[in-house]
Amino acid sequence: MVYFTPKKLISEDSIGEELRRLRTFKNLGVDEVAQKLGIRREYLLAMEEENFNSLPAGLYGKNFLKKYATFLGADKSLVAKFLQEAVDDQTENNPFSQKILKKNKFLIFPKIIRNLLLGLAVLICFLYLIFYFKKIVLPPDLTVTQPEKNLMIKETSILVAGETEKEAEVRINGELILNNNGGIFSQTVNLKKGVNTLTISAKKKYSQENIILRQILVE
Q1: Are 194 and 215 in contact (CB under 8 A)?
Q2: SS3 of 180, please?
Q3: Which of 61, 163, 202, 216 could form a cystine bridge with 55, CB 3.0-4.6 A?
C-alpha cells in the first residue's frame, strides 16, 4: 500500500494543525466532537494528524474533512486549497483518488469472476444438453456373442445371445426378445434348410437402430 504524505501548504498552519488548534481553542474533546458530528473518533484524529489514508475512500473522506472544518469554523480557503491540491495531484500520492481507484478495482474484480462463473455454467449446461441429446438419439451399443460369425451347421436351431444397453429393445428378425436388467439377451431361433439370415437389432425409444446380421447355412 502506498501511503500519502500531504504537502505542507503555504500557510501558518497545515490543515491538520488548524483543525487541532481550533478544537483545542474551543475546549472540545475528540469524543464530544465525534458524538456531535457522527464521525468516528479515529477519523477525527486521523484528520488532525493528516493521516488521510485512514479515512474512508473518495468523497466520504472529503465530506468528513469539510464537515469537521465547518463545525470548527476553519478557514474555508485553507480547506479549499488543500482539497484542490489533492485533486490536482494525479500521482499515486493522491489520498482520495488513489483510494477510489483501489475500490473500483475491487468492485470490478468480483464482476469478472461472476461473469466467468456464469459463462462456465452456461457452457456446462450446453455440453450436458449435447451429451444428453446424443445419448437419446444415437443407436445403443449392441454385441452379439453367439453366433460370433456366419456359420455352416447341420442343426435346425441356434442360440442367439449378446448384450446391449438395458433401456434398449432387442429384436431378432423383427421378433421382440426379452432381455434382463443388465442388457443381456438370449433366444433360440429355429432355422430352415439352406441359408438363413438373422437380423439382430437394438433400439431405444427415440434412438436410431443398431443392426447386426448373421448368415447361417443349414446343410
Answers
A1: no
A2: coil
A3: 61
The contacts of residue 11 (CB under 8 Å, 6+ apart) are 18, 78, 81
Residue 140, preceding peptide bond in cis (omega within 30° of 0): no
Which grid coordinates are listed for 110? 468480483
Contact 38, 67 (CB under 8 A): no
Residue type, 72: L
Which three-class secondary structure state does DSSP give residue 48?
Answer: helix
Among 13-17, 38-42, 83-87, the least confident range: 83-87
Confidence of residue 8 (pLDDT cuts 50, 70, 90): very low
- What dihedral angle (degrees, nearest 10) is formed by the CA atoms of 175, 142, 210, 174? -10
* Torsion angles phi and psi, residue 181, rounded to 5: -65, -25
pTM across the whole model: 0.43
Where do you find CATH 1.10.260.40 in the chain?
Answer: 1-137
Domain 1-137, CATH class in plain words: mainly alpha
Q: Is 128 exposed, middle or buried (0-12, 13-18, 19+ CB in 10 A)?
A: exposed
pLDDT tens-place string over residues 116-151: 888 899 999 988 888 877 778 889 999 999 998 889
Q: 65-101: b or e for each residue (b if 16 or more CB lie within 10 Å)?
A: bbebbebbebeeebbeebbeebeebeeeebbbbbbee
Which of 24, 78, 26, 68 minimizes the C-alpha distance to 46?
68
CATH number at 142-218: 2.60.40.10
